[in-house]
Every structure is written in C-alpha cells, then in structure tokens.
Specification:
By secondary structure, this protein is mostly helical. It has one domain. It is built from three helices and no strands. The mean pLDDT is about 85.
Length: about 50
C-alpha cells in the first residue's frame, strides 16, 4: 500500500485544490474514498479477483 500511495499521490492534488475551496464536500468525499479503499483492501485480503 505504501509504494502505491507514494507513486500516485500527485494524481489527487487537483482534487485537493478543488476540495479546499468547498469545505462542505471535504468530509463526504474523503469518507467515501476511505470506504472504497477499505473495500478494495478487504477484497484483496480475501483473495477476491478484482480484475
């Protein structure tokens, strides 16, 4: 997870800039991304073929 996160963080910089101007959307967007990442981690750990 660390290498993947370090390699693609720059992709989310525009999203961060956009969210910095819209504070009401910060919590829902970050929460939904965290849930999605948690779901992917769960599926990988249980050997579910994502691709």
């Amino acid at each position: 997870m660390g290498r993947y996160t370090a390699s693609c963080w720059a992709t989310f910089v525009p999203l961060g800039v956009w969210l910095s101007r819209r504070p009401l959307l910060q919590t829902p967007v970050v929460t939904s991304f965290a849930l999605f990442q948690g779901m992917m981690f769960y599926l990988v750990q249980h050997q579910f073929s994502i691709l």
